[in-house]
Amino acid sequence: MRGPLHERPRSFYPTFTRKDSDQGVTHYCPGCGHGNLHKFIAEAVDDLGVGDRTIFVNPVGCSVFAYYYLDVGHVQAPHGRAPAVATAIKRARPGSIVIVYQGDGDLAAIGGNEILHAANRGENLTVIFVNNAIYGMTGGQMAPTTLIGQTTSTSPLGRSARAEGYPLRVCELLGSLQAPFYLERVALGDAKHDMAARKAVRRALQNQVEGRGFSLVEVLSPCPTGWKLSPQESTKFVLETMTRTFPLKRLRGDAVPSASEPFDFPSGTSREYSRESIPQLLELHPGNGTPAADSSNAEWTPRSVPLRFRKPRIKAAGFGGQGVLFLGALIAEAGMRAGWDVSWLPSYGPEMRGGTAHCHVILSEAEVDSPLVTRSSVLFAFNQPSLERFHAEVMADGLIVYDSSMVTSLPAGCAVEQIAVPATELAEKIGTKRVANLVALGAYLKKTSALPARAVESALRSASLKPEVMAANLHALEAGMTYCS
Ligand SMILES: Cc1ncc(C[n+]2csc(CCOP(=O)(O)OP(=O)(O)O)c2C)c(N)n1
Ligand code: SF4
Ligand SMILES: [Mg+2]
């Protein structure tokens, strides 16, 4: 066990160089609760000796920079999604110790759904829920846990139950579920309460080490800046006012045991994923990735693709409803099945409501660093505005595949090689213009050999299309190939 509390935990960096400061100061405001909590977590990690296998899931909120201070593994989750990210980490790496750290805006507002389901699944995680009854980071807006009557920048007259609802009691809510193993609400404020908080944090971590299941500690924590109170007034506010709405208690633990077992993989199931095991999981041959039963593409390998077409950076664009997002996802899925590293980034914008839609796709021999395609080697354009908008981004030795049934004129000065394929017209002959995207894909594949057709077919099958839709898509693929031969 550790000595006096003022000893520096080993799980803190000796100097906070990531913060660009060697003074030992944090970025938190004076009197903020986050710093103390970081320390309690670091101490528990030290005491349990799990620093080497701890992964801390950082939220969006004031504590987003926890990775400046805690010398453990870190992952930054999107706002509210820490429980989902943590679930994936814990399931993929069951030996890791995963700490989820979330504010009340992060956990109870945008992430309300995520925490509910992680708790309901009884994930073997440790969640530290920092309830300061306000959005600290963004300047003090009302949170789901803001007290009745509390003034914030978005409830200047004080929160009213009638207008904004009641403060959300997360522990009580999760306490109605069967699966959580440990739920406790504590507070920061004076030595006695701090010690209780420290103990609860430690216990929640120990539960995970012992494989007991979902543990959450709700910590009532001061936010002097957001509350516009001094640190001393804030402490008083926590202990005397917040605790009236959020009583300090253990809601699940020894006395009220969990009714369910934490998630575990069935015995005999591999718990470790590796790069090599993924093609296996997808039932593909490692290397060229084509399906086991497929002999027609046996000669195809990523290296058999002509150099110019080997690392496509694709943009597909058209009207909403022309299937450009599906086309992009299909290429990425097929690329993965063919052994490439891939990414697919759809653009969801106002264009989805009737304008142009587009997506970015990368097939690469190496890991993809950014999924954004700003200079494309291939452009699929299914209408005039898309061609006009994106043609200038295509590299000089790139390729533009456009639907000549929809594009009436080529942009002036466009010198990039083009394949004009009457995709909509050919698709209509098949019976539905909705498969024009696959006609264009067929033409592209014939021209470039960028992917084995069987990988595309296998990817299409994974989309679980209705038999008649599947048949139309395959027919369209073939029509595009024939057109280009
Ligand atoms: C998707 C998204 N929506 C909104 C924001 C803006 N935002 C940043 S932090 C935050 C709330 C943080 O409040 P809380 O989780 O209570 O953390 P605190 O700062 O109080 O510790 C919001 C709404 C964002 N970054 N991302
Ligand atoms: S705004 Fe509040 S939560 Fe954020 S650092 Fe300051 S005191 Fe802490
Ligand atoms: Mg908050």
Residues in helix, %: 25-40%
Could you say which small molecules are bound to this protein? thiamine diphosphate, iron/sulfur cluster, magnesium ion
Number of strands: 13
- Per DSSP, what share of the residues sits in E-state strands of 2 or more residues? 15-25%
Q: Total number of helical segments?
A: 16
- How would you characterize the largest beta sheet? 7 strands, mixed
> What oligomerization state is this entry in?
single chain
Euclidean distance between termini CA atoms? 75 Å
What's this, in brief?
A hairpin with an 8-residue loop joins strand 9 (341-347) and strand 10. It is elongated, with a radius of gyration of 28 Å.
Can you offer a commentary on this structure?
There is one protein chain. The protein has 485 residues and is α/β, with parallel strands linked by helices. The protein contains 16 helices and 13 strands. The strands form two sheets. Strands 2-1-3-4-6-5-7 form a seven-stranded mixed sheet, sandwiched between helices. The chain has a six-stranded mixed sheet with strand order 9-10-8-11-12-13, sandwiched between helices. The radius of gyration is 28 Å and the shape is elongated. Mean pLDDT is 88; it is low at 285-296. The site of thiamine diphosphate has 17 residues, from helix 3.
